[in-house]
Design brief:
Layout: E1 6-15, E2 18-28, E3 33-37, H1 44-51, E4 59-64, E5 70-73, H2 85-90, H3 99-108, H4 122-134, E6 140-144, H5 152-164, E7 168-172, H6 176-182, E8 185-190, E9 193-197, H7 204-235, H8 241-261, E10 281-292, E11 295-306, E12 310-314, H9 321-328, E13 336-341, E14 347-350, H10 363-368, E15 374-377, E16 380-383, H11 384-390, H12 407-420, E17 425-429, H13 437-449, E18 453-457, H14 461-467, E19 470-476, E20 479-484, H15 487-494, H16 502-515, H17 526-553, H18 558-561, H19 563-598
Parallel strand pairs: 3-7, 3-8, 5-6, 6-7, 12-18, 12-19, 14-17, 17-18
Antiparallel strand pairs: 1-2, 1-4, 8-9, 10-11, 10-13, 15-16, 19-20
Helix pairs in contact: 3-16, 7-8, 17-19
Length: 599
């Protein structure tokens, strides 16, 4: 077996007088794929920074192969000091690295490289940082939440790219599907110590639960030992002082062990505050459209959402998911068409931008709307400190300004606010951002048991599989199609996952022109000219076929009455859409070639 690239042993680190790491270990061999998991605040990012040599530990040893290369992706990349994105990415290359790979990766991630880093969104910053750490193809790659701010096409591309690398990987992520697809070993960081499972994340939760059950059994044994020792102290023979002192010391040790065993991290307690039952019809939209300038976000869209439905909305960044969500819930007006909301609706929302949180609020103010010390949950008053504890906030954090909370803490706070409002209609825009896996578990269970209606926008495939009863997908050019089941069911019916929008495809093609080495111009052949002239008509024919299939799929109760026909139409629809996409890409390439030759 090859010697490890990296070896951490008995790592100890105390922050603010509190031990964060206490004997943690990490070993990474060439080509290994490891996921590092644990609760928010358990020290995962800190351990990763120690492994990358970015911060010093209090005690322990770190061995790193002298000739090995390493790259680290932080949660919050810093692009300051660089004039362009390309300059930032190229600064991460070594002397022997291929500069063309930097441009290639930027193209694949939808960036040209000429962008000003200061103007990038959170997703753009993440894409640039990924290109920087992937370009050198290092021996060891540390990735801290690499899927944050990425849409589904980018996440699936990143999975494919990482799977093709020879680099060893250590991943931190809250995206279950991402971890399942990439990891081959799991490190669990729990109460400052690490435990290793030589299997991927798919086997982790069963293994973790088994370890916790064994720990609980040991606690019961320890409790019985303490009871026996206390009985001896109170009722045993009082002579033999030396022996008595030994038993007393043993009792003290047992009590200390019990205190240590109780230091496990608590669980978030999620419960939605329920309102009266809504009417059967929650939302009905008929032929609604919404455009911004010449760009159609929603075009001739119709849907009916009934009480108890769990609708997931997916699509690439910029497809208009949040706009559609605001249209459906009546937050903004449609350009045309009608939207009808059902009777007795009481809606609670969670928006991804955290706009509802005022920076000058304290945590207590945010939960009570600066209105006292009490929160009302399902008709019962609960003190705000007790409600804070349900979401893993310590009492001393009550007066902590929101600006000082971590991303995970803000995510839990937004959930706490949304769930404290009486509702029968939950609208959640990216609720999984910054939440740890255990909190995600509880949120999924709560949504499954929630008696009302749920609409959720998410890029988390596993979350959608567990929660959604139907998936609404952005197909481009303002078109949205609904599929029965979760995300995996949608992929089966559609024949593909979420695709990048046509605008991104054009940007990607432009970036490829920029990145490609200069070539001698060629004349447009007769075959290319003929294809350029005939493709639009062919695309229109296939679009008509799609419209006919869509009309068949929209027949009432087709899915329940004739599942075979529904599956057949869905498969034909997916094939037709794939054909349209191929022809559109071919036409775009030919049109760009024509413009280049004429320009």
């Amino acid at each position: 077996m090859a010697p490890p690239i990296l070896l951490l042993q008995d790592v100890t680190l105390t922050i603010g007088g509190k031990p964060l790491l206490d004997g943690a270990e990490l070993s990474v061999s060439p080509g290994e794929r490891i996921c590092l998991v644990g609760r928010n605040g358990s020290g995962k990012s800190t351990l990763l920074k120690i492994a990358a040599g970015m911060i010093e530990m209090d005690a322990g040893t770190r061995f790193f192969q002298p000739d090995a290369t390493v790259r680290y992706l932080p949660q919050e990349p810093d692009l300051s000091g660089f004039e362009t994105v390309l300059a930032y990415v190229e600064a991460g290359l070594g002397p022997s690295d291929d500069a063309y790979r930097a441009r290639y990766l930027l193209n694949e991630l939808g960036l040209s490289g000429e962008e000003d880093p200061a103007s990038l969104s959170g997703g753009g910053v993440r894409r640039a940082a990924l290109a920087r750490v992937l370009a050198p193809e290092p021996d060891l790659l540390f990735l801290d939440e690499p899927t944050n701010h990425l849409d589904l096409p980018a996440i699936e591309w990143l999975e494919s790219e990482l799977a093709s690398l020879r680099s060893a990987l250590v991943l931190i992520s809250h995206d279950r599907r991402f971890l399942q697809n990439l990891s081959r070993a799991t490190i669990w960081l729990d109460r400052g110590r690490t435990k290793r499972l030589d299997r991927g994340f798919g086997a982790f939760e069963e293994w973790r639960d088994k370890l916790l059950e064994e720990e609980e059994t040991e606690r019961h044994k320890l409790d019985r030992l303490i009871v026996n020792e206390e009985h001896w102290v109170r009722h045993g023979v009082s002579a033999r002082r030396k022996r008595n002192m030994g038993r007393m010391a043993r009792l003290g040790d047992l009590r200390q062990q019990r205190r240590e065993a109780r230091k496990g991290v608590g669980d978030v307690k999620l419960a939605a505050s329920e309102a009266r039952t809504s009417g059967k019809l929650v939302v009905e939209a008929q032929n609604i459209s919404k455009s911004f300038g010449e760009r159609a976000i929603v075009k001739d869209f119709s849907t009916r959402i009934l009480r108890g439905d769990r609708l997931g909305i997916v699509g690439p960044n910029g497809a208009g998911k949040t706009t559609l969500l605001n249209l459906i819930t009546g937050q903004i007006e449609a350009d045309s068409g009608t939207i009808r909301l059902g009777a007795s609706l009481e809606m609670a929302t969670l928006d991804q931008s955290r706009r509802a949180l005022k920076p000058d609020w304290t945590l207590k103010d945010a939960l009570t709307n600066a209105g006292g010390d009490w929160v009302e949950i399902n008709g019962e008053r609960k003190h705000v400190i007790g409600y804070m504890k349900d979401f893993l906030f310590a009492p001393e954090q009550a007066r902590t300004p929101i600006a000082r909370l971590s991303g995970g803490e803000r995510g839990r706070l937004m959930l706490a606010r949304a769930l404290s409002l009486p509702s029968n209609f939950l609208v959640l825009d990216e609720p999984t951002n910054d939440l740890d896996l255990e909190t995600l578990d509880l949120l999924q269970e709560m949504l499954t048991d929630y008696p009302g209606t749920v609409i959720v926008v998410s890029h988390d495939r596993d979350f959608l599989d567990r929660v959604a009863t139907s998936i609404l997908v952005a197909e481009g050019q303002g078109k949205w199609i609904e599929y029965a089941g979760g995300y995996s069911d949608m992929v089966t019916q559609r024949g593909a996952g979420v695709s990048a929008p046509s605008g991104a495809a054009k940007q990607k093609a432009t970036a490829k022109e920029t990145a490609a080495p200069p070539q001698e111009k060629k004349k447009l052949s007769f075959k290319h000219k003929h294809a350029l002239e005939t493709l639009p008509a062919k695309i229109a024919e296939w679009q008509k076929k799609c419209d006919l299939l869509q009309a068949k799929l929209e027949q009432p109760d087709l899915y329940t009455k004739d599942r075979a026909a529904f599956d057949r139409f869905s498969q034909e629809m997916a094939q037709a859409q794939n054909q349209i996409t191929k022809m559109e890409e071919e036409w775009l390439e030919l049109e760009m070639m024509r413009e280049e030759l004429e320009g």
